[in-house]
Amino acid sequence: MLLMGDEKMGRKTSFFTGFPGFIASKIIERLMIEEPGMQFILLVQASQLEKAEHQIQTLCQKLFQPPDRFTLIAGDITMPNLGMEEGLLSTLRTDITHVFHLAAIYDLAVPREAAYRVNVEGTRNVNDWCLQLEHIERYIYFSTAYVSGKRTGRIFESELSCGQAFKNFYESTKYEAEALVQAVRSRLPVTIIRPAIVMGDSKTGETDKFDGPYFIMRFLDKFARLPIPYLGKGEGPFNLVPVDYIVEAACFLAMDPIGENKVYHLTDPEPYQAKEVYRLICEALTGKAPRYTVSPSAVASLLAVPAFRRWVMVEKETINYFLLETEYDCSQALKDLQGTGITCPDFADYISIAVRFYKEHRQDHNRTIQIH
């Protein structure tokens, strides 16, 4: 329900892209509690409207909230003015105080054209839309820690363009998109969130897609009865964060004045080595530890064969993230979250919960990533 006249004075109204996606839904759920007067305007692709309506009903029933806190708008970030009808624009320009831009293609194997259209052109359109808003208090853009591409060593939150190459089109287009957002920081109150690889909820294990580290579980499923190998030395850090940490931290940094004009690595400040992550997943899933080591290049060669990667249900681009020699400095995030009680859980403390959820839902096709 759009607010009119005096009703909207002093009222916060958030505008979301990326709903009914998992992280957007979780952020909205938290804000419904923490910001009881906030209205939510959700830009949704026409094909997702039915799913979005069901998700809103679920949230409202769960939290005993009235559905009139929500307005669903059919639109498309790849179009000027986000594909919204002209009649809405004047009202929205005066209502919206917070914009959360999460819509993106996150697939590591995405072709460049599709990734560029959504991630780059879409973000350019969201930027242009935000610049029209009369009362915007914060523009929260969800980037990724992996805009660092193939860089090695310590990566700081203040860094972006360092001449880096990229491992895939997901990374390169998210880099280009963040560069566009960085360019409007002088004209908009921006907060940029760069998560590491996102796991399910640390308390429940809940996730909507079995991608990222869950590809390891898919891989191990196929070989659980055999002696299991390590994938190379795995001496570099493998940075994983549970979604509840991302949600809690992002909501605080988005709504508190401290987060304005900041870039945050929402990464694990003490990540495990890739080898240890693999061992912990293996032990939780199969009950046994890896016993020998194979070359990552050998695994990469197998994953280059379409029939093999479809059989193991693993994207070939995944192997690159086991070879990273990159440390993400998150000093700004730790400083600004100090005293809030919001901290990144230890991977070893929640991996068994993640594995249990995976085992219970691994046959759910809605959580399965299509492998080409």
Automatic annotation (TrEMBL):
Residues 17-249 form the Thioester reductase (TE) domain. PANTHER family: MALE STERILITY PROTEIN 2-RELATED (PTHR11011). This is Thioester reductase (TE) domain-containing protein.
